[in-house]
């Protein structure tokens, strides 16, 4: 029989006490409540490890960098052991043909019982030649690896939405995973990168309960992406009070007022940065004094400046935001009305003069 | 079906200065009480929404003191949401009235665009507005250009604002609430993300302001230069005519 997660942990010298601690912390992180920690422990003790293929397309490896920094002291060790991460070219020992053979082996041997995690996305232009893995376009490897997968995880904004390589004008025609894979459940875990604890929690949930977490309409796990940064931001009271940073380095910035006027995208960004935070709960962008750039939102590179509250609209030739365009249009209409009124008055006076 | 209410004023007994016998059309009851009250409630709601909405996008200067001393953005947003709900309820009631009220109540919802006469009148009124035609024609309900702006700029514009507005509001109320389920969940994917949805909500708000400007100007101009009453009609409900002859839309009226 395949090794269970617990076997692996014990083999690696993790004490039972540490294991139980991990279970209760993970249960808490998943929002499951303390009574489910034993369920988690039981699952990890009895279930064989599900193999995970981790493919890399066009990406910057920030997702992997985030993932390996999952903050709980035990998490990175445990998750890497839990995963049976059989293929991940960034961190695996094997290389070349040996490495590529693993993909083949998992797809055929574990038919319908492995998870495909995708970091980055496939470019489609020039038959996918902009991203070559093992001598073949990445899009082919992706389609092949997905063919027998139980589910697909789209790590990060690249795989979920397209991110920087799909930003206009998108010369390589990079597309998110769901534009290529249509017949598998896809879990999108957007962010550039996603929060490490969110990544480990999503994968732990899938392995523990053998089902994918509840997703919203855009395919994101509801437990982490159902609220905006703004909804739980610790600077929210300053927003409600009408206290804003008006310029970088002003007195208000020192006081930690709301960054809304500095273009913070917290009010339009779905992620759990303001609750989970980063680096083991140490901080997150807004806490560090910089607005949210909305990295987990679809098309965030094409949403204009990171420092404008209102997006600039480029379709009109001149790059201006909606309020400037609207006010200009209203001004033009107002001037036209005034001119029309003046002409009407003159014409009317004249015709009255004619009548007399 | 015409539902008479206690609020309807009695029809003017004394003939208007232009009364019968000299070819003048007598006064006609056009805007029933619910339409008139809706018109002004709606106008105030739009004014409140435009002002509060502008300040949500571009907040006033920072207030000094502790955060606990103020709730300015809270009040601005409350104003916006409250006015939004009033507008929505008003529009729902007005839509209902379009079907149960008199014929005139339906006109802006279903402009008679399939009749040649409507387009002939539209062309005539267009020429009048660009000073190629001296005199306007008479209408019991609205002149066709007014109907077209009310239908396309106001009605469709407001519908867009209600849908996008509820979608934005649902972001705050959160998953599982009816605003989120019925609006946010499918509207945000259409626009790609919340930021774009905000942008379009702003653009459409400005188009509503432009409608208000055109609507008010048109009303003032026709009150002064046209052949029928405008302001007194939206207050009293009765349309009176300043020149002899049959109004263009008399057969429908």
Question: What this model shows, in words?
Answer:
The complex is a heterodimer of chains A (356) and B (253). The longest helix of chain A is centred in the C-terminal third of the chain and has 34 residues, at 322-355. Chain A is built from 15 helices and 9 strands. Chain A has 3 domains: 5-225, Rossmann fold (3-Layer(aba) Sandwich); 229-309, Cytochrome-c3 Hydrogenase, Chain A, domain 2, CATH 4.10.480.10; 320-355. Chain A is α/β, with parallel strands linked by helices and 356 residues long. In chain A, helix 1 crosses helix 5 (75-83), helix 2 (16-29) crosses helix 3 (37-46) and helix 5 packs across helix 10 (196-209). Chain B is an all-alpha fold and 253 residues long. Chain B has one domain (28-59, 71-239): Transmembrane di-heme cytochromes, Chain C (Fumarate Reductase Cytochrome B subunit). Chain B has helices spanning 33-57, 72-100, 103-106, 116-129, 144-173, 178-191, 194-225, 231-236, and strands spanning 28-29, 238-239. A two-stranded antiparallel sheet of chain B has the order 1-2. In chain B, helix 1 packs antiparallel against helix 2, helix 1 (33-57) crosses helix 7 and helix 5 runs antiparallel to helix 7.
> In CATH terms, what is the architecture of the largest domain in chain A?
3-Layer(aba) Sandwich
Q: How would you sum up the global shape of chain B?
A: elongated
CATH topology tier name of the largest domain in chain A: Rossmann fold
Average pLDDT figure of chain B = 88
Using the coordinates above, name the CATH class of the largest domain in chain A. Alpha Beta
Greatest chain-chain contact: A-B, 54 and 49 residues
Strand order of the largest sheet of chain A: 2-1-3-6-7
Distance between the termini of chain A: 110 Å
> What is the count of helical runs of chain B?
8
- Which fold name corresponds to the CATH topology of chain B? Fumarate Reductase Cytochrome B subunit
The class by helix and strand makeup of chain B works out as mainly alpha
| CATH homologous superfamily descriptor of chain B | Transmembrane di-heme cytochromes, Chain C
Question: What's the CATH class label of chain B?
Answer: Mainly Alpha
Computed Rg of chain A: 26 Å
Main beta sheet of chain A: strand number and arrangement? 5 strands, parallel
Order of helices and strands of chain A: HHHEHHEHEHEEHEHEHHHHHEEH
Subcellular location (chain B): Cell membrane
InterPro entries (chain B): Cyt_b561_bac/Ni-Hgenase, Di-haem_cyt_TM, Hydrogenase_cytochrome, Ni-dep_Hydgase_cyt-B
Membrane topology (chain B): Multi-pass membrane protein
Region (Disordered) (chain B): 1-20
